[in-house]
Amino acid sequence: MKAAAAEWAADQGFDNQALHAIAIAIELLLKSYLLNVATDDVWNRANIGHDLAKALHYSAQAGLVPPSRIEWIISHLHPHFQRGGFQREPSRKWPPGFADDAGEVARQLAQTVRLHQRHGHIDSASSPEKTTPR
Do the Cβ atoms of 6 and 25 come closer than 8 Å? Predict the structure, then answer.
């Protein structure tokens, strides 16, 4: 649902709205991956909160191979998202095409997480039991 809203907003030139939806989608996708392989909701709330960089870090530690540009996308979104800036700074300017790039990375992440959940691609060093990421 968030991905469709983000795509519509980007098509309309509403980059802040699109990027806010994309940031939420990325956060939820990374946490979904972690819930599936390594953590529980309580751990995610205590250790990640709404921190996109931490969510990516712990997901990668738990075996996720994220889309190649996600770190770049998060480096731009995270500081703004973390401060609630999407509501406070509605006139923020983003690099040209950034909303489209971020949307594509979010779609790639969704496909990766979906494939993992469908086929159970777990790193060979991982145990089938849930463990806390280090």
Answer: yes
Given a contact cutoff of 8 angstroms between Cβ atoms, the answer to whether 31 and 48 are in contact is yes
The DSSP symbol for 117 reads: H
19 pLDDT higher than 80: yes
All structural domains of the chain with their residue ranges: 14-87
Report d(CA 39, CA 41) in Å as an integer: 7
From 18-22, 80-84, 112-116, the region with the lowest mean pLDDT: 80-84
User: What is the C-alpha to C-alpha distance for residues 107 and 92, in angstroms, rounded to an integer?
Assistant: 24
Asked if residues 88 and 63 have their Cβ atoms less than 8 Å apart, the reply is no
b/e 20-51 (16+ beta carbons within 10 angstroms → b): bbbbbbbbebbbbbbebbbbeeebbeeebeeb
Q: Is 120 left (phi over 0), alpha (psi -120 to 50) or beta?
A: left
Nearest to 105 by CA among 7, 1, 9: 7
